[in-house]
Design goal:
- The protein is globular and about 60 Å long.
- The chain is of the alpha+beta class.
- The strands form two sheets. The chain has a six-stranded antiparallel β-sheet with strand order 1-9-5-11-3-2.
- It contains seven helices and eleven strands.
- The longest helix has 36 residues.
Amino acid sequence: QLLTIEQMNWDTQGKVSRLAQQLTPERVRAHVTRAIAKAPLDDDPFPHLIVDEWLPDDVYDRLIDALPPSVFFADRDDSRQQLPVPLHLAPDYTRRVWQFLAQDVVTGMVGPALTDKLGPTIHDYLMSYCDVPDGIDLSLHVSNGRIMLRRPGYMIPPHRDPRWGFITCLVYLARPGDNAAYGTQLYRVRDDEEAPSGKPFYIDQSRGELVKSVPFQPNTMLVFLNSTGAHGASIPAEAQPATLERYLYQFRLGPTSRTIAELLACMPEHKRVMWAGTKSARAGDAGYD
């Protein structure tokens, strides 16, 4: 990894010097806000939207060009390789591009745009658990940003993500030559039930009815509410080529610790037990510095 950093820092000096002119927040903000605003909201099997061309093409190209080389994932199990973002050990070019994405784009643009887009949907969802106080701050804050590398043999069964991460965002990092296979499956769940805790909630595969397969398309972001139904993904072990790789960037959006405390306080006891947990108190504070 250190040798790769040294070599790439030498090779990408020119690219680093041009980033200030290429990654301009004002231009990107207008594009991201417009893309999210016009994306249609679909309620089946749960509230979700697919944001096409969510970044300007040249910024998306920088993102792909700056993906961490696979050597930086190599000290993790093949089936669950991931790197937290912002990156701390990576070539300068990679760190700067992904820092711009995490801090300027996701925290500064996507969070506010999705708060505007999905605020009423989140409010209605929470009203099924408690009388949401007037004036409560339901603005969305970023946590758990990570680049994920998936290879043949990867499988995660239908599930819902942790409930305090109200919104999950999956950015498909398709590179030139990648096909659209092996995206994300969205399921309706027979005899659906409430998640028993704040942890990921896995569903028996036999109860899942496939509603939609979201293709692995470049410059696309899947956004969904962790409410009902389930989502999953897999890459068959026999997928070709054997060296196939799928890169994704995942982050979650949820409330602050203060908002969590306010919501828990207004829930009836039997609901509060299912929502409370060791992570809930700090779920909203896991954003980027």
